[in-house]
Design brief:
The complex is a heterotrimer of chains A (249), B (319) and C (131).
Chain A lengths: L7 H19 L1 H27 L9 H38 L1 H7 L4 H30 L12 H23 L5 H25 L8 H29 L4
Chain B lengths: L11 E12 L2 E12 L3 E6 L5 H8 L7 E6 L2 E3 L3 H4 L3 E4 L11 H12 L5 H10 L13 H13 L5 E5 L7 H16 L10 E5 L3 H7 L2 E6 L2 E7 H7 L1 E7 L12 E7 L2 E6 L4 H10 L2 E8 L2 H14 L7
Parallel strand pairs in B: 3-8, 3-9, 6-7, 7-8
Antiparallel strand pairs in B: 1-2, 1-4, 4-5, 9-10, 11-13, 11-14, 12-13
Helix pairs in contact in B: 5-6
Chain C lengths: L10 H14 L12 H8 L3 H14 L2 E4 L3 E4 L3 H26 L4 H14 L10
Antiparallel strand pairs in C: 1-2
The chains are: A mainly alpha (249), B alpha/beta (319), C mainly alpha (131).
């Protein structure tokens, strides 16, 4: 009984739209988390700027604009990292969250393929994470010309490799783990522990590697990105393949 | 309208063929074999833990069998489950619809997935008859209303087969009556258009409901099928023979076809399948009885006696 | 009209009996349509197939006739037929009472006395029927 709508593509679009809208609503809590993280970092910026300009220890002779730019960029950098960290909650909620609520059974009985279900989760989670990451990247781009004396100007690409690698790793590990558990929290925690562990290992390794002790930021972030991709991508792929093949939703 | 996964039309809508499922060491479903003809309603009964939910989950493709095969609407599950989805409706024991959705949102969601197969008129009329408040979020609905919504969402695409897993468990009496009414409504709703009747499989602990609604009944015990028979036949052929003995605690010889027997003082009751006068004669002939009478049984009593009989039977010696 | 699944009498039989009683009591007149299979099934909360079988049984017995396009109607000779059936049903109830009395080892006199008491105490018995 195939769909009698003339174009199966239209039907697919309609189905994907419904699934993605449903998944955005499913990810409501992690999205709120991202907003809170972003606002939190912004407040930090504001507080810092306030205390530097109006607080009891204000420094009138400092170059305020340079400080401000530095603070904003650090805030964006932190917010970006928090976004990556919170990607783990997306990974956990995506599968484990639905299994815990048994809504995965509901979707499993609807005429949607496993592939469509997964695509919808990737698109909805990915779009949100991308928007936030892009926003913070834009802050860097916007403040680029004001940061001539700061090292961060020289290595924007490396930072974003690292950023994207982290997003993939935090999301990917949680995605894989949540295929085996019904707890989004456990998936997120395992993901955070694994990814942070891998990053920490690489950081310590670089610090103790005597020959490369004073390695530059770009190199450092490139290494961290490599670790993140190495951990995240296989988990993402393995989790996807496993979830596509198994019977239980 | 042809594809390699096109389900074959079948006279039997549901088929189990040596279906088994193991969890670790325990065999939860054991070599289940029976089939349900299209257009009939089958009540699936058994104690808690008998394996009903596991069987149903394998039937709808939510769980893979350890061995054996199950066919639903001509599709082998879970291999061909994508083809079967449009033909089946499933009402689980607890509502699985997204709790933050309202009834209307859930209907709109299903409609956008099913497309032209979704029958708006049917859904609207059934929702009205069920007296469902479609503007409330599912998490604010009572148990009975949430189950009615699950039923509504399961039939909106006019499936050929409807499967319900203990749909009225934990319901109060009124909610149960309303749900049964809803189920009957949705099953008879297509009759005006001369559609063939739906096939329905439902598991339930409310044996009165099974007796009312089912054409046939399948009893599951410890994963094994005890029997699968038309309800009328089962009830007309299973009888309880009550004998008053001449003395207390004599040795008794039960007739062939005994399902369960019990003794209390001088009273000896024997539940037999395939009742005939020969069994009464046997009891009179082989035992010292003062009086014998025969009782009809309700489905509830038949089930209890069959299960007690199974529990009393000696455990098979492992080979 | 209600059926009772806790009663060992098969549901199909209960429907036949209830309808027969209804016709005998004049609830449905000859020529009048009875509720459709679907309506009756919804009313009684039973499988429509069971109702269908009961209706077919009553049609075979001559209590109902099928009206093309409209459903089932009470036949012209139905009230008398129903009364006869009802008589059989009442006699069956008395036989059961006697059986119960005999199982309790009561004498005929005692059982007759119980019968009289039942009449006198019955809410539907009028003054002439009480002794």
């Amino acid at each position: 009984m195939t769909d009698s709508i003339p174009s199966p593509i239209l039907a697919n679009v309609r189905i994907m739209r419904a699934l993605i809208a449903k998944d955005w609503r499913l990810f409501r809590l992690p999205i709120i988390g991202l907003l809170v993280a972003g606002v939190g970092c912004l407040l930090y910026t504001g507080a810092f700027f306030y205390f530097y300009n109006f607080g009891p220890n204000r420094r009138e002779h400092w170059d305020n604009s340079a400080i401000l730019v530095s603070v904003i960029q650090n805030a964006a950098h932190s917010a970006g990292f928090l976004t990556a960290l919170l990607a783990s909650t997306f990974g956990g909620v995506a599968i484990a969250g639905e299994r815990a609520e048994r809504t995965a059974d509901f979707t499993a009985l609807l005429p949607v393929t496993r592939r469509q279900v997964i695509m919808s989760k990737f698109v909805s989670a990915g779009s949100v994470l991308m928007v936030f990451t892009l926003f913070y990247a834009l802050i860097f781009i916007f403040t680029f010309n004001f940061s001539e004396h700061l090292f961060i100007r020289n290595y924007p690409v490396a930072i974003w490799e690292w950023q994207i690698g982290c997003v993939i790793s935090f999301f990917g590990v949680a995605w894989l783990v949540s295929a085996f558990t019904t707890s989004a929290a456990i998936s997120a925690c395992v993901s955070i522990a694994t990814t942070m562990g891998a990053l920490a290992w690489m950081s310590v390794y670089m610090e103790t590697d005597r020959a490369n002790r004073y390695v530059d930021v770009g190199h450092r972030d490139g290494n961290l990105a490599m670790v993140a991709f190495t951990v995240g991508l296989p988990c993402l792929v393995a989790g996807t393949i496993y979830y596509l093949r198994r019977t239980a939703p | 309208m042809s594809s390699s996964n096109e389900p074959k039309s079948a006279a039997t809508a549901i088929e189990f063929s040596h279906l088994s499922r193991r969890f670790g060491k325990s065999l939860v479903v054991d070599d289940l074999t029976f089939s349900i003809p299209a257009g009939t309603t089958c009540g699936f009964i058994g104690l808690n833990g008998a394996g009903k939910t596991t069987t149903i989950r394998m039937l709808v493709g939510l769980l893979a069998p350890s061995s054996g095969r199950t066919m639903l609407a001509g599709c082998e599950m879970p291999r061909q489950r994508d083809a079967a989805k449009r033909l089946i409706g499933y009402v689980p024991d607890r509502p699985t619809v997204y709790k933050w959705m309202t009834g209307s949102q859930a209907i709109a969601f299903c409609k956008s997935i099913y497309g032209s197969q979704w029958n708006d008129a049917l859904v609207a009329s059934v929702a009205k008859s069920l007296r469902l408040d479609l503007d409330k979020q599912v998490k604010h609905l009572s148990k009975g209303s949430a189950a009615k919504l699950s039923l509504l969402l399961a039939i909106g695409h006019d499936p050929r087969v409807l499967i319900l897993d203990e749909p009225t468990s934990g319901f109060d009496v009124l909610a149960r009556d309303e749900f049964l009414e809803g189920l009957l409504l949705v099953n008879t709703a297509g009759e005006a258009q001369d559609r063939p009747p739906r096939t329905v499989l439902f598991s339930s602990h409310a044996l009165g409901d099974v007796q009312r609604l089912a054409d046939s009944v399948a009893i599951l015990h410890k994963g094994k099928l005890v029997l699968h028979e038309p309800v009328e036949q089962l009830l007309s052929q299973t009888k309880r023979i009550r004998a008053v003995m001449n003395e207390s605690a004599p040795q008794t010889v039960a007739p062939p076809g005994t399902v369960h027997e019990s003794r209390l003082g001088k009273e000896w009751t024997v539940t037999v399948r395939s009742f005939s006068a020969d069994q009464v004669d046997f009891i009179r002939g082989k035992n010292s009885v003062a009086q014998v009478d025969v009782q009809d049984l309700t489905l509830d009593e038949v089930f209890r006696d069959y299960v007690r009989g199974e529990l009393d039977a000696p455990e098979p010696v492992p080979v | 009209m209600k059926i009772d699944p806790d009663n060992p009498v098969p549901i199909f039989q209960q429907i036949v009996e209830r309808l027969t009683e209804a016709v005998a009591a004049g609830l449905y007149s000859p020529g009048e349509l009875i509720p459709s299979v679907r309506q009756q099934a919804l009313n009684l909360l039973v499988n429509p197939n069971t109702v269908q079988r009961a209706y077919e049984h009553l049609e075979r017995e001559g209590l109902l006739v099928s009206r093309r396009g409209s459903g089932m109607a009470v036949s012209d000779g139905a009230p008398e037929l129903a009364a006869t059936r009802s008589i059989a049903g009442v006699r069956g109830a008395f036989v059961q009472g006697i059986q119960a009395g005999k199982a309790a080892k009561l004498s005929r006199t005692t059982i007759d006395g119980l019968y009289r008491k039942a009449w006198n105490g019955h809410p539907q018995a009028d003054s002439e029927e009480r002794t």
